[in-house]
Amino acid sequence: MPADTASVTGWGRTAPTTARLIRPRTYEEAAAAVRDCGARGGIPRGLGRAYGDAAQNAGGSVLDMTGLDRIHAIDADEGIVLCDAGISLHRLTEVLLPLGWFVPVTPGTRHVTVGGAIGADIHGKNHHVSGSFSRHVLSLELLTADGGVRAVGPGTPLFDATAGGMGLTGVILTATVRLQPVETSLMSVDTERARDLDDLMARLTATDHRYRYSVAWIDLLARGAATGRAMLTRGDHAPLDALPERTRARRDPLAFRTSRLPAAPAFLPEGLLSRTTVGLFNELWYRKAPRARTGELQRLSTFFHPLDGVPHWNRVYGRGGFVQYQFVVGHGQEDAVRRIVRRISQRRCPSFLAVLKRFGDADPGWLSFPVPGWTLALDIPARLPGLGAFLDELDEEVAAAGGRVYLAKDSRLRPELLTAMYPRLADFRALRAELDPRGVFVSDLARRLGL
Ligand SMILES: Cc1cc2nc3c(=O)[nH]c(=O)nc-3n(C[C@H](O)[C@H](O)[C@H](O)COP(=O)(O)OP(=O)(O)OC[C@H]3O[C@@H](n4cnc5c(N)ncnc54)[C@H](O)[C@@H]3O)c2cc1C
């Protein structure tokens, strides 16, 4: 089976490490790769969209699962798909949308695999309504450290350890997923501006329940009275009768259309991304946003995955790469959100639009990230002087508020805070010790945090 020694990194392009990159083409090859992965162990990898070091394994093996990407069965009446875990949400959308079905949860990029979606138990703009990805998984097949394959269903400890388990319980080979019915491939979107953070949180609290999908893009470079100013974009799948008669969209309502801009250049000068340029971008974006607009029809790709239109956009941050920082704190911790947003604004991090969202009920995954409350995600160039110490302080603030950071985005959290952030960690470790006593499954993230 194809195997190379390669430098592997996450989407943030920080902390690359070298591993034996193996690309199984059959389940048998995947089992052989697990059996033979050697003293430094192995970790499954999807499309490498985790920002940090979750899908890399210095000196060991990395199993690139994207070669196993078949759809085995579609129940087009019930909206259920059985597929290999290496398939991307992009490919699933290409196949399922014309049949009137959409993936139940999508992150800000559709270039993630089903295995990565379960491994990180990803959330989307519909978390407050639909929960995270694993809620829609009816069953999965897991290749475990002994080389065997287990059928795993929801409501079992192994399922709860695997959903959000960052690939550390084994390799997900297949999954059966319940889908979301849609009449069209367009979204009906309401947009409004919020003048500051309090205004934003009040709007989200008062009206989020009216929308299946909701997110706020927040300008963290705005200061003073404008701190936390934002644009809310919320909506739902457009019904057929919302599409104007005699248009291309109406004639072919389930067509999957995407747009593609030129790729970002391989290397941009580091200095290009200064507070001034990013601040200007954010200012222009805020001014351009409508004060209020309702019922705008947008493509799925525009609404859910605006960054997918620019291939390799992660190069914009230069050779040093970037850190994505995402945390969640519970309802009632609004003051913690205010303090953190104020600190980031005062620190003047050159951060493009950040995302603020309200999460709904948590799902049972032991290391699953979402809990009911407020989540903020922002990108910061990794070479920003003093960044490590600054983020350590934010971690303390998040932990003190009973919150947590998202492991799929992380590349730098200190292990001391992890137990407070993830109270089921002890159960996770105990299950792993029993399931995988030789420690076959391991990643840079797992070593760094002692997972
Ligand atoms: C632009 C962008 C926007 C994003 N937006 C969001 C968002 O809105 N919400 C959100 O939750 N996340 C978001 N993410 C993060 C992303 O959804 C997750 O990191 C996801 O896990 C990436 O999937 P992947 O296939 O690329 O997996 P990888 O990044 O390759 O791996 C991620 C983890 O999943 C494990 N894994 C992968 N395949 C398998 C498998 N077959 N079996 C077992 N474990 C496996 C890996 O071991 C690793 O721990 C975003 C990322 C980007 C780049």
Which features does this protein show?
8-stranded antiparallel sheet; Uridine Diphospho-n-acetylenolpyruvylglucosamine Reductase, domain 3; binds flavin-adenine dinucleotide; alpha+beta; 5-stranded antiparallel sheet; globular; 451 residues
Topology of this protein?
Elements: E1 3-8, E2 17-22, H1 27-35, E3 42-45, E4 61-64, E5 71-75, E6 80-84, H2 89-96, E7 101-102, H3 114-119, H4 127-130, E8 137-143, E9 149-152, H5 157-162, E10 171-178, E11 180-181, E12 186-194, H6 197-207, E13 213-218, E14 230-237, H7 248-251, H8 275-288, E15 292-299, H9 300-304, E16 322-330, H10 334-347, E17 354-359, E18 373-381, H11 387-400, E19 404-405, H12 418-421, H13 425-435, H14 444-449
Parallel strand pairs: 2-4, 3-4
Antiparallel strand pairs: 1-2, 5-6, 6-10, 7-11, 8-9, 8-10, 12-14, 12-15, 13-14, 13-17, 16-18, 16-19, 17-18
The structure holds flavin-adenine dinucleotide.
Largest sheet: 8 strands, antiparallel
Per DSSP E runs of 2 or more residues, the count of β-strands stands at 19
Tally of helical runs: 14
Mean pLDDT: 94
Task: List unreliable stretches of 5+ residues.
Answer: none
Structural class: alpha+beta
CATH architecture of the largest domain: 3-Layer(aba) Sandwich
- Strand proportion: 15-25%
Question: Concise description?
Answer:
The protein has 451 residues and is α+β, with helices and mostly antiparallel strands. The protein has helices at 27-35, 89-96, 114-119, 127-130, 157-162, 197-207, 248-251, 275-288, 300-304, 334-347, 387-400, 418-421, 425-435, 444-449, and strands spanning 3-8, 17-22, 42-45, 61-64, 71-75, 80-84, 101-102, 137-143, 149-152, 171-178, 180-181, 186-194, 213-218, 230-237, 292-299, 322-330, 354-359, 373-381, 404-405. 26% of the residues lie in helices and 24% in strands.
